[in-house]
Design a protein that fits this description.
2 copies of one chain form a homodimer. Chain A has about 325 residues and is an alpha+beta fold. Helix content of chain A is about 30%, strand content about 25%. Chain A has 9 helices and 14 strands. In chain A, the strands form 3 sheets. Chain A has a 7-stranded mixed sheet, with helices on both faces. Chain A has a 4-stranded mixed sheet with strand order 2-7-5-6. Chains A and B meet through helix 1, strand 1, strand 2, helix 3 and strand 5 of A and helix 1, strand 1, strand 2, helix 3 and strand 5 of B. Chains A, B: Belongs to the HypE family.
């Protein structure tokens, strides 16, 4: 005799009894807090005591689980990190689930646990949410949206703050998330110790800001380091000069990208930050990053310049250089 | 010769050039404002000057267009109304799109225009967003998530504020949204002048609060009036007595529900509000609602009592009564 595996059915999205069951049995036990437990249409929160920062991301990564994380961890890190990069202390998340009929309830529990664990780690509360269910074939398992509210602690960050001579830093090796997801898809004919860099950046970003002299922070997710750096300087009078041999790429990531014909500079990171700092602040920021878990590999990879306005220029060890454009096409679809 | 219809491709979700095109050509022209134009990872907003209220909803309605609205209008109204019902003035929305490869670009433009128009009507700004693309078959056209931030203007609303003798009001006829979507699906063998009630409730809720004596507001979306009223009293010592012949149901909705074997009391509304007020405030709140567009049909439908703790009791014109439970099963899947 086989035991039936419990699955999500359309009833769970009705707004009726089954929806209430899902909330009471799976969601509240994982996330319960004063604001959420009230189950109003919206969460009433304490005064922020400063300017709100607001961000959102939807997550459609496939497969839902990969070395180093899963769609739940990613959904928390993605929005938490966006808030951090905007100079905020992340405080509250909303969580909206689009579930596919037939999703094993155990998968949902695993993802919800992962969300709860990562939220605790990042110091944020899940205070409001929503659940929808679509028919079989309508959502590839599950999609997740999070939105987040933080309070601004570092005003004035942004592209406009960049100055010629600024240092370009990265908190660790690049492209791990992209490579790990490709491995999880079975698109690599190798067994590697690839693991996603997926992690919340609340401590690293706070430490960088405390060290001083930070002009701009971003996490290089979709499109990778190359695309993100292009966004820093496009349509402006500045350029970024990157030193190819200064950019940290793990051997396994490099090998995986070689096999797939990809460039690690365009592969997504989900727990790395790029920081542009005043030149004289670079060493202090690097020291602050290196002192923290996830920042041990922080290093300087380039400099803001003026020679090639609007461009990102990669300088090779042999003295050559080439322009790194934005990602064209969909190098790595559904990476987050 | 046929002209190729422009469609969304996987490239639009890459985070690279095509994503930037989508943002620059379709999204920014529709929503542009100072916070969004900055295109940082998060939107930095002005101090709210009060307590934040935070809410989110994902929208998976099928079909994407129906009489009286579309998924874009619904996505704005849904979250705006949740904020309003929680006693907030809605201020800011995030917008996250999950697009299916192959979606005609014209459909996206239509939906985006609808979002922009409804946001203007409701007085909210779209300040941050995200776009993902999934392969053909992965999202039934498009799914939308909105999250919203408002500022609390009426503290103390909630189930705990209910008192025996309180009046139960509704701002207009019930079940129109559910019936209109079913008609759009071609599930009704009739041509009717059914139209969704989908609309932002910012003015109606503000007017009700200004009139005074409001204890609780909710919009009866999924699960309809019956399910929402159950949530007001479940697990408590109060009940709600409804007068069946006082509940406004449009003739076309009634006919459609008859044909489908549905009960209008369980059909979704997306632009109606239930308000529970102190008995002596009911007339003033009704007058305030009736003076506004969308509130012309406001009426009193019941009373908070104590006889059947935790229950919603429907009293029929002939003197009978029956318990209205929460919706069981998925009466109307993907209604919002």
């Amino acid at each position: 005799m086989e035991t039936m595996q419990p699955i999500i059915t359309m009833d769970y999205g009705s707004g009726g009894l089954r929806t209430a069951e899902l909330i009471d049995e799976i969601l509240l036990p994982a996330f319960g807090n004063a604001a959420l437990n009230d189950l109003g249409d919206g969460a009433v929160l304490p005064d922020l005591g400063g300017q709100p920062v607001f961000s959102t991301d939807s997550f459609v990564v496939t497969p839902w689980k990969f070395p180093g994380g899963d769609i739940g961890k990613l959904a928390v890190c993605g929005t938490v990190n966006d808030l951090c990069m905007a100079g905020a202390r992340p405080l509250y998340l909303s969580l909206s689930l689009i579930l596919e009929e037939g999703l094993p309830t155990d998968v949902l529990r695993t993802v919800v646990d992962s969300i709860a664990r990562t939220a605790r780690e990042a110091g944020v509360q899940i205070v409001t949410g929503d659940t929808k269910v679509v028919e079989r074939g309508g959502a590839d398992g599950l999609y997740i949206n999070t939105a987040g509210i933080g309070v601004l602690r570092a005003p004035g960050l942004g592209r406009k703050a960049l100055q010629p001579g600024d240092a370009v830093l990265v908190s660790g090796s690049v492209g791990c998330h992209g490579a790990a997801v490709m491995m999880a898809r079975g698109e690599l004919p190798m067994e590697g110790n690839l693991s996603s860099d997926c992690r919340p950046l609340h401590e690293l970003s706070a430490a960088a800001l405390a060290a001083g002299g930070v002009h701009l922070m971003r996490d290089p997710t979709r499109g990778g380091v190359a695309t993100t750096l292009n966004e820093f300087v496009e349509d402006g009078s500045l350029c970024i000069d990157l030193e190819e041999d200064a950019i940290p790429v793990d051997v396994a990531v490099s090998a995986a990208c070689d096999l797939l014909g990809l460039d690690p500079l365009y592969a997504a990171c989900e727990g790395r930050m790029l920081a542009v700092t005043a030149s004289e602040s670079a060493d202090a920021v690097l020291a602050a990053l290196r002192a923290l878990p996830g920042g041990e590999g922080a290093c300087r990879i380039g400099t803001v310049g003026t020679e090639r306005p609007g461009k990102v220029v990669l300088h090779t060890p042999l003295g050559g250089s080439r322009i790194l454009g934005k990602l064209t096409g969909a190098q790595l679809p559904r990476i987050c």
